[in-house]
Design a protein that fits this description.
heterodimer, A: about 110 residues, mainly beta, 7-stranded mixed beta sheet, about 0% helix, B: about 110 residues, 4-stranded antiparallel beta sheet, globular
Chain lengths: ~110, ~110
């Protein structure tokens, strides 16, 4: 039982490049979400999903895209990276008892 | 929409001293409340949660929190802090009937002096 896994752990992109952050969970949770964490800002919700095929926007969705084709996977796509997207990204899988977080992806956009 | 305020950006305590981290929330109905801890370079770990019932909630690592509806607060406490408690602490509020995906506060950084 791995919980929530995220890849890669670190990534450096140039402005304008695109990439996908991977997230997978093996707990059969319906709810999954993506957050970004910036100093002094706490965690801000980017997108979330309440089940396969269903996604919705969070607080800061611009520049990001998600899809949920299976219960296990919830990838986050950066369409055209910008320096403002330099951040640490966390994926979480949610049960009613609380959220289970992945280890994070540290992204730098130059 | 719900919101969370953690008034203290940093808290410094001596090892062995007691600790209280403040959390205030804004939500019209009974909220779901959480405290998470994040050690440096790590993800977040759930410390404790309140859904209903007893307003004093026990968590892992010796932490507890008390829900006070009249004050819209959910403060985290520990009677004796250990150096390993140095971390970032986040309060979060979720809503009944919602998607169980909470809103987070900005966090309080706990510094522990030997």
């Amino acid at each position: 039982n791995a919980g929530v896994t995220q890849t890669p752990k670190f990534q450096v992109l140039k402005t304008g490049q695109s990439m996908t952050l991977q997230c997978a969970q093996d707990m059969n949770h319906e709810y999954m979400s993506w957050y970004r964490q910036d100093p002094g800002m706490g965690l801000r919700l980017i997108h979330y999903s309440v089940g396969a095929g269903i996604t919705d926007q969070g607080e800061v969705p611009n520049g990001y895209n998600v899809s949920r084709s299976t219960t296990e996977d919830f990838p986050l796509r950066l369409l055209s990276a910008a320096p403002s997207q330099t951040s640490v990204y966390f994926c979480a899988s949610t049960a009613m008892g609380g959220q289970y977080f992945g280890p994070g992806t540290r992204l730098t956009v130059t | 929409a719900q919101s969370v305020t953690q008034p203290d950006i940093h808290i410094t305590v001596s090892e062995g001293a007691s600790l209280e981290l403040r959390c205030n929330y804004s939500y019209g109905a009974t909220p779901y409340l959480f405290w998470y801890v994040q050690s440096p370079g790590q993800g977040l770990q759930l410390l404790l949660k309140y859904f209903s019932g007893d307003t004093l909630v026990q968590g892992i690592k010796g932490f507890e929190a008390e829900f006070k509806r009249s004050q819209s607060s959910f403060n985290l406490r520990k009677p004796s802090v250990h150096w390993s408690d140095a971390a970032e602490y986040f309060c979060a509020v979720g809503t009944s009937g919602g998607s169980y995906i909470p809103t987070f506060g900005r966090g309080t950084s706990l510094i522990v002096h030997p």
